[in-house]
Amino acid sequence: MPVMDYLERNAKLYGDEVALIELNPEEKETRRTTWKEFELIEPDRFEPFRREITWSVFNEKANRFAHMLLGRGIAKGDKVAIIMYNCLEWLPIYFGILKTGAIAVPFNFRYDAEEILYCAELAEVDAIVFDPSFIGRIEVNADRLSKNRLLIYVGDGCPSFAESYRELVADCSSQDLNIPISDDDFGAIYFSSGTTGFPKAILHKHQSLTQAAEMEQKHHETGRDDVFLCIPPLYHTGAKFHWMGSLVAGSKAVLLKGAKPRTILSAVSSEKCTIVWLLVPWAQDILDAFDRGDLKMEDYELSQWRLMHIGAQPVPPSLIKRWKEYFPEHQYDTNYGLSESTGPGCVHLGMENIHKVGAIGVPGYRWEYKIVQEDGVTEVAKGDVGELIVKGPGVMTCYYNNPEATAESLRDGWLFTGDMAKVDEDGFIFLVDRKKDVIVSGGENIYPVQIEDFIRKFDKVKDVAVIGLPDSRLGEITAAIIEIKEGMECTEAEIEEFCLGMARYKRPKKIIFEEIPRNATGKIEKPKLRARYGADNLVEKETIG
User: Fold this and answer.
1) Is 80 exceeded by the pLDDT of residue 439?
2) Is the pLDDT of residue 33 over 50?
3) Is 302 helix (H, G, I), strand (E, B) or coil?
4) Residue 317: which domain range?
5) CB 3.0-4.6 Å disulfide test: which of 27, 135, 211, 537 passes with 394?
6) For helices 3-13 and 90-99, what crossing angle results, to 10°?
7) Cα dihedral angle (405, 408, 412, 418), rounded to 10 degrees?
């Protein structure tokens, strides 16, 4: 069934219970307010520290937005983009779009003006919903963006080229709609990471959205008493579909603004969060803060926190070992996926398999996989490296308006992930590296992830990214870009000595000390590093967790 049915069910069964909380501990104002109270208060009087809505209000807000869209000519099959930071309005707007039968098109909030225009035209969107942070970026191309498109502004001080969300929905019905929507109808377009050039538009049916939601609830056994802490941006499939486990369970979730260690732990403590999805750098920052004594466990109420899961990139086993030293009772999971597979979980470790940390895991709920040779058909022998391909009800329909890229990545229902992997004797999948990240040096295939995992074990290293640089003799050489922990100093000689523990051909030939660039979902932006140091730019699919 479409995911909107879960929202309507929750509104009927748990209508008076809190569904969503927006929390910003870094704001000075500490007044607690409901959505209704917030609407009645002059916005310039205070900045809300905490807002919340119940399931019934969530559903009513989605209905009002849906009725408004229908009244403005948005119909089934049309496309509505969202470019907003996480807030209490985000998900009701998203579900309002789905309820009309239109296609929701979340935009990355890091897009510049030209990327917004490009994605709007690529996806052929009929409306764009945006908040105050994007006025300038929309205004640059307002004439082209507003041509045959509805521009809806969520906030105070509506610009002249848009219409006010509050005014548009004020008199709209809050009743459920009766638009027939099936699993085979199109539901959403997501975009690849676009770390080089412009991103691709990934089209999914409602079947994909429901699959992701139900799988998340099943994988993490999300129950009615759980409280999920959502930190990453909601435009991203990882954040949204991890949250949808709470939707299926009918349980509370917290949208947290800020990812500092103190901010995260304060939210877990004050809101009694039980499930937290972290990105690798956030987990590292928390551990480093504990190690330095900046944070103390006894200052927070963390006993109810049962599950920490992580993704968006290969997870260093050493990180989880450190985590378990501080949180020995925590359940743990890692989730692998792509936007092309509706986000995380087509492969996951499983909470019962922490003894296999280092693996990305086993096929997720309703998924299957193969690891194939270059011909894309022949499976490799167990233990050998090949390309991971996956198949299941969450596979994309196509790259919208890009049949060539679709044909390359989608073959006979199998999604070619572009990730190199192998399977051990117990059937657990280990990610080796991105196919396009493999470094070929002197005829040897070198997998950067293996080098990164090794270097991260050095106690002065906070983060590392290994890339290939052009070399006239060997073709490529390995370069390690290393970010040192706060307050520490490190030399090339120390790194070189530590790397003596690796096979000679894997040792980095060049060491660069620099902060590691990551995107909004924590993924290392290797194309930026390649561009900076003269390597080829390589376009990647968006691997997420």
Assistant:
1) yes
2) no
3) coil
4) 227-434
5) 211
6) 120
7) -110
